[in-house]
Design goal:
This protein has about 70 residues and is mainly α. Helices cover about 45% and strands about 5% of the residues. It contains 3 helices and 2 strands; from the N terminus they run ββααα. It has a two-stranded antiparallel sheet with strand order 1-2. A hairpin with a 2-residue loop joins β1 and β2. The radius of gyration is 13 Å and the shape is globular.
Length: about 70
């Protein structure tokens, strides 16, 4: 991910999301949900550069990664 590039979740920058939303996103990815908001954001940024791209890709394929070899 390039410097200055904003990571988003559901079209919103991570820093604008509530802690509960950040924790839900972490849980969906099987990551730890503990810590302060800044730690949660850092953990999500480390997983993927663009969650929206991931979501659009899943939508085009009719679902998620299930069923792929």
């Amino acid at each position: 991910m390039a410097d200055g590039e904003e990571v988003t979740l559901d079209g919103r920058p991570l820093h604008l999301l509530r802690v509960a939303d950040l924790k839900a996103a972490l849980e969906q990815r099987g990551l730890a949900k503990s810590g302060q908001k800044s730690a949660l954001i850092k953990r999500l940024r480390g997983v993927s550069g663009d969650f929206e791209k991931e979501k659009r890709k899943a939508g085009r394929n009719g679902g998620g990664a299930e069923g792929r070899p």
